[in-house]
Fold this protein.
Amino acid sequence: MDKNEAKRRIDALTEEINAHNRHYYLENSPTISDYEFDLLLKELIQLEELYPEFKNPDSPTSKVGSDLETENAPFSQYAHKHPMLSLANTYSIEELRDFDARVRKGTDSPFTYNCELKFDGTGINLLYRGGILVRALTRGDGSVGDDVTRNIKTIKSVPLQLKEDSGYPAEFEIRGEVFMPFASFDKLNIQRELDEEPLFANPRNATAGSLKMLSSKAVSERGLDCVLYHLIAPGYENSLHSKSLEDAASWGLPISSLSRRCSDIEEVIQYIQEWDTRRHSLPYPTDGVVVKVDQYAIQTALGFTAKTPKWAVAYKFKPEEALTKIESIDYQVGRTGAVTPVANLSPVQLSGTTVKRATLHNADQMEILDIRVGDSVYVEKGGEIIPKITRVELSRRESGSVPETFPKVCPACGASLVRDPEQSKFFCPNSDFCPPQIEGKFLHFASRKAMDINIGEVAVHQLCEREYVRELQDLYNLDDLQLLSLDKWKGKSVENFRASLEKSKSVPFHRVLYALGIRNIGETTAKTLASRFKNIDALAAASREELLEVADIGGIIVDSIRGWFEEPRHLKTIEELRKAGLQFSLEEKAPVSDTLKGMTIMITGNYSIPRETMKYYIEAHSGKVGSSVTASTTYLLAGSKAGASKLEKARKLGIPVISEEEFYRIAAPGEEPKETQPQDGQMSLF
Ligand code: IVH
């Protein structure tokens, strides 16, 4: 194919694939099979690789519609140049020997293995061009990943620029794992516990959650780290994988020094046995050993199955368990009044740390396991970190032990506990007077994602104990003498506290709403409610029906909201905080136009802009976003993967179904939508 022909073909393919994308994603009616589509895409990818100068700016190979981060699609998504595969797992030495036998059968040439630790985090693909980090993609669905470059750039061990003149290729990709060292993980969970936010079950989940945060500043505070283990670059066809990693290390990239070249499977087994123990002293999580044929030429000859390479296998370690004794059971009362049973254990070593406590989750869980004080129990680290009790060693049960009964009254204030049937949890209903709940209320109010006020746990405890504060508004009326009486508080702490109080007056309404600590109103729900009702008075006055109409708000949340606003003390708090200067309404933006005035538009599926942005777009043009398809719906706006039941209902009711393109023609005739990425949960299109 000559250059002119290549350019013509690239242009034709670009146009054709973009048209198919529109059929598929916007009109929900693909005209070719996925397989045919993939063939076209593959042809374009190959041509673009050969003739990068002809690649069009709107090439579908750069940006692919996908449902990776479905909700608001906060990240751009790009196709991986080479699919990101996973590995076949084995759990026994026997299976490992089978793997070795298969490899030997697949090649006549001599080969060796490279053994590496299997880091337990999130896979990442880095693209370096001219020695500069240009893009970092998550694994996504293997073919398409989320662009998390901004977040990856906050990880200290990932160089933004490679060592000068170190001989790196002009352009290459390298894959690896972003992970959270145990120290960062513990710090994060301790903070989350203080903030009464749900804990991460293990460093892997914490890593995945951190990488997908919108604020890179917040990511930088998560203490993530990275190790790279798979180079994709030209020039290594006859070399060794281990050599490619050595080279990558010399360019300044973070490569593990704990890998080992092994001449046969016996040496591999030795490495595995050694690390099954040694890994417990590593400061980061690992969950196995990855065994790779070291010779690239043999890797190529062995090839791939549909999902995994035939030249590598992951040997997974079994989770460690330990036997210990339950000394006593505590019942902890949290900010929301939820009572959680926690077992105090005879200290025992497990995966490198001493375990003294394990959560028993709730009354149901205790009953299922038939947990009793004095029992010998097995503890395991779920995902290797948070200890959980997996079973009781009944053969060791002491005679005379009695089944544990969940308390009937709150261990902190004595109020009768009530059971929340939905969550199989017991709650202390005395939320305004129960000490841990009062303290929790202040800590939550002051937490970073709420009002971000400079005050710690000890100070809050003392303020509550001395009854300097009872209600949230009291924080704004403390005098210097009261503040200086707090442990370790000096002029500077008072100054910082006062400055943060002042700053809290410009915290946006949705965070103030979250800060009030209404049960079941997390950050996301607070945002939804704020954008729907615009101010606290409208929210307080909303009927059950109106609340239920809001997307993602169900009966439990509605009961919490209505119950909270029925309490006169809470209304007083709002009044006082309003007087103090806090924001109780959204900053009103003048509508961009009233082209959608009087229309109720129901949305379903994914669009070329984030879903949340689409809602703003509709409202900015004076339309209403519907919560279900009813006779009064004006249009059903159907994106890709539109809900079948909604389409069906619209058809039955005779509601017109429109595509995203048609919608823009109605909302903003002659205008193209502009997209801006949401920042810290604030969506804006204008
Ligand atoms: S190699 C084609 N090496 O484990 C081979 N993967 O279960 C690509 N992982 O998706 C992977 N440590 O996210 C490789 N030393 C290591 C690894 C490793 C952790 C992860 C990786 C992969 C998953 C497979």
The chain is about 35% helix and 20% strand. The first helix runs from residue 3 to 26. The radius of gyration is 29 Å.
